[in-house]
Amino acid sequence: MLIGNSFMKRLTTVTLILLSFLGAQESMIYWNSLSTSVKVDVPIAEDETLKGGRVQIRVSFDGGDNFKDLGQPSPIEGGDMNDLKEILIPRQDFVSLDGYSEGGTAQFIAEIWDRAGNSAVGTVSDSVLTIDETIPVLNEVTVTSTNVQNNSLAKPDDMLTLTITASEGIDMPVVEINGDEFPTTGEGNSWKVENVFEDGDDGLVTFSIDFKDYAQNPGAVVTATTDESKVAYDGTAPELDNIRLYSKNSYDQTLAVKGDSIFLDFMASETLFTINVTLNGNEISQLTKTELQYRYLHVLTEKDAEGSIPFTIDYNDLAGNSGEQVLETSDGSEVLFDMTPPATFKVESVGSSTKKSKSAAPVEAGKPSSSKGQTALPAFLTGTTLIIAAAVTGVLFLLMVLSWWKIFTKANQAGWKVLVPFLNLIVLTKILNKPIWWMVIYLILPVGHILVSLQLAKFFGKKIIFAVGMILLPFVFYPLLAFSKAQIAEPAAAPE
Length: 496
Hints:
This protein is α+β, with helices and mostly antiparallel strands. The chain has 8 helices and 30 strands.
């Protein structure tokens, strides 16, 4: 009887001193989605009567009001004396009990029997198991940069910010950016990573977020943002190539006079965000852009300084990387601006010269030098000279016919009509919007030629100086008008 009373006295002090499981934390003990068993440590006294006895673990899901057997009784062996007996309850035995629920708590107690069947119930363990098997998710993941031009791009010294908002409190997540791990700041369900770019490979910034909640439930690794935000790193400065400077001077593209257009062409290695171009000290605007090919235009005025025309190109790309300032062309091309006319001068003398014929047939005495009714031709009109003159005349005539044919075509008239006498004049009066009787005026030379030249120049939007050229040098300026890109500036007559 004394032995039984002593045993019972010792057993009343038995407590559940440790509860552990996979993923337990110091601040709170959790049962999570990865837990495989409940581990309970029960103290066994140094009492030979306990050898061959048993231990039963019980659990309560209602705050300790009702306890249920958890698993099967565990036998007490000799090695358990004066030690903690570790008892493992499989997951299925735990989660299948009535009262088990997500977010609930579990309290534990143990009952010990000796060999004789005497039993004692220990006090409730101080360890409370919180049930949390909910997998955390990241509700919001965004990425942005401090790039002043575009927050989806980044260059050296720009800061990348990765913002994380979880569905519940999580431990510090493990974040990798472009394969390197970076520290995170924050608490609870809000965290962020900040990284200043120094260098790296150009391209889209990649990341991965590995995270667990307080119960150590692991969330799925996240590698994409929730709002489709992205940041691309660009640490490469843009470059220019095929830089060419030239003029539209009629005689030489390397020379320019007042009124000439100066063009600056170049090719960029990538799309540019800002471009600042100066020509001869003038800030000029972009004329055209075709993919990565750029063209700038400046028309020279009396305000421009004479001499070799300087230029500058300052530029940066979409990420803000600045390219090296350009001051020279790629091919060495340059333009010299000259608006100083030649010095005044006076023709000093005027004379004439004659050319003796190489050979002359002798004239017999008493015979005239020429037959009756025949006139001797000047020396310069004989032989080869006549052939050349005829050929040149034919070429010029053909050139004018072709020029008029082209002019008729530009005026929406059939070109062949220029070949038909009088019809060509009728069509011309129609083109120039004149009454039919004007064709009589056009037949009067040189009045007709002057009037036609003036009216055609105006009809094609040319200045008076061009009309003067058509009057004085028709074989030059009519082809220029016909075969240039000049188009009618006034409504053309409808074709017949």
